[in-house]
Amino acid sequence: MIVPTFRDVKAAHERIRPFVRHTVVIESSALNELFKARLFFKCENLQKAGAFKFRGALNAILSLSDQQLVHGVATHSSGNHAAALSLAASLKGVKAHIVMPDTAPAVKVEAVRTYGGVITFCEPTLEAREQTLAKVVAETGATFIHPYNNFNVVCGQGTATKELLEEVGPLDVVMAPVGGGGLMSGTAISAKALCPDAQIIGAEPKNADDACRSLKAGKLFLSDNPETMADGLRTSLSDLTWEIIRSHVDDIFTASESSIKAAMVLLKKHAAILAEPSSAVPLAALLENRSYFEGKRVGMIISGGNYDAALLGD
């Protein structure tokens, strides 16, 4: 297995830089005071397609040859990768064939359609996703771009942390949410290179804690269709992301559903950040482990902002 290095992340950044947004880093004095720490939020909720996923999807597409793109691209995704791949494909003038679980949030389904993705729905299990995707690929000849078990996707995701650290300087802790592990892997690669003394911490819902259990046990556990509002974090790590996470990530903290919702409220109230549940999990984990972070400079990737406004009563 070939594992990306920071050199690969830098190459990805040069490749996608003309097309992605250099998203802002927001600091909130109210949240700093509340948590007795300096918190830096890298706002990928403001990225094109509403999430960090555009970085990895675009890097993957731009790394393919014209021959590999002739029949378009395909993937399975609960939403953010689907929208990102659809937008990236549209920039290259090719079709994106998207397999989505029929439980995917309506806001994410609409985003995929807005960017021109062709959706095929399936049951909300990994087996159903993979079987449906195999059928779609066989029928269309599209090139499969995995949401996270893909070298070029991981490299693209690492560019968000590269930008964060180049802007704010050394940090004591770098955090990102963990689902399939693409963002966490890219985050860890960039953080280890640019800020080697930082603690690299993942954050997961308690109801979907397979990565946390895997890291503590030293062997990979898979999730089994967990119930959590953080829909982007219901997937399991892949061989590639597990290899990176177990060698680069120091710890993974978990957070309850109530803490996730509380973190969304705090981000909106004190930093004007509209964070979807998955991207609020790092702050939710901080809520439940305050003493660990006191007095530290902490960077967090706000991974996306695609959520149903009704969740917060908006």
UniProtKB/TrEMBL annotation:
Gene Ontology biological process terms in this record: D-serine biosynthetic process
Pfam families: PALP
Ranges for domain Tryptophan synthase beta chain-like PALP: 17-304
Record keywords, A-Z: Lyase, Pyridoxal phosphate
UniProt-listed InterPro entries: TrpB-like_PALP (IPR001926), TrpB-like_PALP_sf (IPR036052)
Gene Ontology terms, MF aspect: ATP binding; L-serine ammonia-lyase activity; magnesium ion binding; pyridoxal phosphate binding; serine racemase activity; threonine racemase activity
Domain of life from the UniProt record: Bacteria
Cofactor(s) this protein cannot do without: pyridoxal 5'-phosphate
Membership in a protein family: Belongs to the serine/threonine dehydratase family.
Name used for this protein in its record: Threonine dehydratase, catabolic
